[in-house]
Design brief:
With 169 residues, this protein is of the alpha+beta class. The protein contains four helices and 14 strands. The relative contact order is 0.12.
């Protein structure tokens, strides 16, 4: 695994990339857009990357195909995850470690295009699963507790869907 360099001062302050080559005075750092930058060794912090565990169960992905019910999102298997990571490396110009780190951080990445791209212009995406919003329960004027989204306004106050006819004039 390649070493990671972060430039701390000079013209390239903030640059973070793979160490391509090292000499006594210079460190050659790969830029995210491509190419190498020679940086004075005293302006660089070099570190060994830490392996990041990527659990496929925390991810969701789509191949981009738009069917009659929209895109289909599914949990990747080990094989489809590998295909998506390879595609994300190609599509985003990133290293494998950068793709895995982005997925762990919660970013969604394009990894390909829809098999039907000519018609639907959709992208294949991989990202973290979204967490469901907690359901907030509220008490209606009819006396029942219901999820906030199902509470209705009636002429005699708020009501649940079951009591709406009774609570309306």
């Amino acid at each position: 695994m390649a070493k990671i360099a972060e430039v701390t001062s000079g013209n390239w302050t903030g640059l973070r990339g793979d160490v391509v080559k090292e000499s006594k005075k210079l460190v050659y750092v790969r830029r995210p857009g491509g190419g190498m930058v020679p940086v004075n060794r005293e302006h660089v912090i070099i570190a060994e990357p830490q392996p990041i565990a990527l659990d496929p169960q925390m991810l969701t992905m789509t191949d981009g195909y738009v069917g009659s019910f929209g895109k289909t999102w599914e949990t990747p298997t080990a094989e489809t995850l590998e295909i998506a990571i390879t595609g994300a490396m190609r599509e985003n110009g990133m290293t494998r470690e950068q793709v895995v780190e982005a997925l762990v951080d919660g970013r969604a990445l394009k990894w390909g295009v829809s098999p039907n791209y000519y018609y639907d212009h959709s992208d294949a995406i991989i990202g973290r699963k979204r967490e469901a919003r907690p359901v907030e329960m509220v008490r209606c004027d009819c006396g029942h507790s219901v999820p906030q989204d199902t509470r209705m306004m009636a002429s005699l106050g708020t009501s649940c869907p079951d009591c709406y006819d009774r609570m309306s004039d």
